[in-house]
């Protein structure tokens, strides 16, 4: 078995391939092993894991007329060649099936205008731009962002193309594209055409490419691969020893976190971190105490909020001269703190670049002042009747004048401190005396030099040389030469800043879908990239799909630390056939859960710093067996508010409306808007409020209504509306939860999922307000029954206020959404059609072996 090169030079192969229809026809649903075999049989490069092969496989999966099947994920895999091959084939199959489901459910993301640019076959490209109406309504920065189309799949005249090159012209707001299709066609044979942007597939391509490579070649670190395949067999770690003392000067650490940092002894380690238990702090101390010298680490998160939280902790060490971090991602999305540590921003703040820029600026100012001074002197010498063009502001910029002003200030300060009378050191009188003396000297020079103005010496005839003010001219030449050298040095510093930044980086930080950017850095900066990636830390590991494991292994990391909470949301995996398939085959199970079920040791964090103690007790009892406790400082901070004001349930009995397969509740929308207008805590513009809801249409209805009645709160970012899925990894002082479900059948759908409930009620730092039908949720599921009962006993519960004006607006808009979804054709798009209806159906009930009855989280129909 050949050893895998850590930094291969990957080339894109655009070979002619048969279309899926020609290869498979209109057959019934086929096994994914057969699909993979036929897709890879006619290309040697595909079997070697080339990027072109991965892209071609994805394009064929996108046009497949039959759905691709997922393969079940086993608990353990052996280290034999057959077992490891089976693992990587499973990852490939599940990636293709998920990508195909995402493509079919995504629909059209963006419509562009396209035309040919250049000569076909030579330098032709497809030039695309936004439609005129879109350009008129979008900001220039937003337009350029939408035109970044590399690794997107486009539909042009009914044919799919993969974009391999995208060059955006900022002046014309257009992008030149290169790409290929399954038939080998290139994006150059089209005149005026419409271009549909269907899906960004770069993440799928990178993961699939890594799985293809690892199937054929040996992993960069076989020891880590063996433990990933079989977590029940531990392998010794290569992390640095922790020593007798953990350095906590920059960031405090509690006993649970210390124990977790010290206990990292195996290649794969698990740390269980419930909400608010300081996972970011634990990451900081792992890197600060266990990372060997001259080695680097990779930290990945699922959400940009988590990236920002980790970057905020690590920034302390970065600015203090310790661990240097590099954030890989879009500066506009990763967050305020993390955005300061992207490659572009770090290059702007590079020490050498800053020094050279400062030197060039100082020399430029000096050169400009000297040039103006020389010009003014010449004009005064040859044309004494003209007034001076040298302004006071120009004179004050001269370094010599600034030094003289500082000298005068120091003299005045000394005179004042020495106890002299104020008349003796009065600044105004002192400056006027100096100025009068200077004017007298200048007048004397002018009188004495008057005869020289008419001398032949001034006509440039002395010794055959032109007259110059020699001292100023020589200084001007020296400064000009120094300025040119400084500009040249600045250009060199800017050109090498990226290499220097990558070379000095100790921690690479990115979201897990952007993990391929680490691999790209390894290829682009082969000589400057750190020699060892000792550790990869996966924050939110319980929400990271196992199909990312080939990407982690391909990076060449030596150790893997998984931090997460398996009680919160599991990985999001799209499936054409519905959730029942991926749950039955354990496709949506994270590697962290698989390792736990295989017997891998779990280090737990038990002290939380986010929620008020009264809310922490509820979350702890429901999900963590009562082992989660609140730090004493948080308990003391929450005593002033009063426990009865922390938890509040506002009852709304208005019925839900169906929007496709989703739901909205206009009564809850009116109650939430009224709450933001009347609540003393929530109407404060200095307090951030996060509104969480279980359904996307409800989030859209909330945003529209808030934009109408409280636009300033929404525009300032003081109030955010998110779904439960988007809320994971974030927190806010005040949380308002809109439950939506309200019906006579007491059916709450996927709101019964305990993972969603855990995320929804554990985001609050000060108060949690639930808006919904308490009777429906009290009689629906045991967990929700305990939540409602806890609110009744430990909080406040009363009917919500729903002003008629707000209620009418929300009701009208909700009915429009319901009517539009009723008229829309079924089966086209995410959440509609037959596949989505099966998503909440209980597979165990269908097989006659469900024992949960009414308590089951899935539908029995």
UniProtKB/TrEMBL annotation:
<dbReference type="InterPro" id="IPR000571">
    <property type="entry name" value="Znf_CCCH"/>
</dbReference>
<feature type="region of interest" description="Disordered">
    <location>
        <begin position="818"/>
        <end position="838"/>
    </location>
</feature>
<dbReference type="GO" id="GO:0004386">
    <property type="term" value="F:helicase activity"/>
</dbReference>
<dbReference type="InterPro" id="IPR027417">
    <property type="entry name" value="P-loop_NTPase"/>
</dbReference>
<dbReference type="InterPro" id="IPR047187">
    <property type="entry name" value="SF1_C_Upf1"/>
</dbReference>
<feature type="domain" description="C3H1-type">
    <location>
        <begin position="836"/>
        <end position="861"/>
    </location>
</feature>
<keyword id="KW-0479">Metal-binding</keyword>
<dbReference type="InterPro" id="IPR045055">
    <property type="entry name" value="DNA2/NAM7-like"/>
</dbReference>
<dbReference type="GO" id="GO:0008270">
    <property type="term" value="F:zinc ion binding"/>
</dbReference>
<protein>
    <recommendedName>
        <fullName>C3H1-type domain-containing protein</fullName>
    </recommendedName>
</protein>
<feature type="compositionally biased region" description="Basic residues">
    <location>
        <begin position="823"/>
        <end position="833"/>
    </location>
</feature>
<dbReference type="Pfam" id="PF13086">
    <property type="entry name" value="AAA_11"/>
</dbReference>
<dbReference type="Pfam" id="PF13087">
    <property type="entry name" value="AAA_12"/>
</dbReference>
<keyword id="KW-0862">Zinc</keyword>
<dbReference type="InterPro" id="IPR041677">
    <property type="entry name" value="DNA2/NAM7_AAA_11"/>
</dbReference>
<dbReference type="InterPro" id="IPR041679">
    <property type="entry name" value="DNA2/NAM7-like_C"/>
</dbReference>
<keyword id="KW-0863">Zinc-finger</keyword>
<feature type="zinc finger region" description="C3H1-type">
    <location>
        <begin position="836"/>
        <end position="861"/>
    </location>
</feature>
